[in-house]
Predict the structure of Histidinol-phosphate aminotransferase.
Amino acid sequence: MKKQLQQLSAYQPGLSPQALKEKFGIEGELYKLASNENLYGPSPRVKEAIEAHLDELFYYPETGSPSLRKAISKHLNVDESRILFGAGLDEVILMISRAVLTPGDKIVTSEATFGQYYHNAIVESAEVVKVPLKNGGFDLEGILKEVNSDTSLVWLCNPNNPTGTYFSHDELESFLERVPSHVPVLIDEAYFEFVTAEDYPDTLKLQERFDNAFLLRTFSKAYGLAGLRVGYVVATNEAIEKWNIIRPPFNVTRISEYAAIAALEDQDYLKEITRKNAKEREKFYNIEQSKHFLPSQTNFVFVVTDKPQALYNELLNVGCITRPFPNGVRITIGFEEQNNKMIEVLKQFNY
Ligand SMILES: *Cc1c(COP(=O)(O)O)cnc(C)c1O
């Protein structure tokens, strides 16, 4: 067995609504607001697309998701050869780590970011450098100081999970201008669709200048397809050609591929979802206690407190399952009804 597995454990999900109800004797509805899923669900067109392909379940998928590739290529205006799909971004992160990292290599990222960057690096026996947060968000200058010619990968998460914070186009551009040009910079934009900030990066544009800037996006969050597992990376065709060697031949299922195409085609629905999310998000920041919340560009709010368990329990009491962290609680923005209940709790909580 790989020795490094001794320092890791399998992903621990939170308790399900049913398990929590039984454990705490809670009556009434419990809402899962712990994993940043889109409670509204995907576009209604997704269900139609799935139904239209139900008679093909015995066929393997087309390797490399060619129909979805065409759709994304057109949507983003990038060449088809520059896209690689995974069973969720989780698998994309795994494939890149597996393709690039060898024992003793070094990755640089932030502390308090998406755990899969660390996890996969350790599996490949790479060393992980975690740069402390600055003002609750990614410290690009701090990361730059840690990057040198030995660095194999840099992971940036924008907006960042779990903090919800973002860095701007100018900050990313200045970072890419100074990072050694052979160091791949992976930019995870899982929450891209929820962003409303005007100065958020146009990463596709930056890719025209920087061959080492790679972009990751997913159908799990705003598109509401977390259960179907589709994510992708946009990179140079040289990088994609190599990473594709790692990809399990039938990783994205047939149904997932058609569901993602249908979701992508319904941009009006996506706009409606993100508009509602922005409206609800604003309500959290309109209360005085929002000085305890990190500024969010996502579908979640990170509440800073040294009593995360107490806050988690109070939110559970109003029917909302959130996600506690050592220095706070991450709340996925839900429907209006739950948000109002959570805001009442946040108004009277003793931070
Ligand atoms: C949710 C999330 C992912 C994983 O998404 P999947 O496509 O569902 O695997 C990746 N990165 C970040 C930052 C996320 O929050």
The chain has two domains: 3-32+268-348, 44-266.
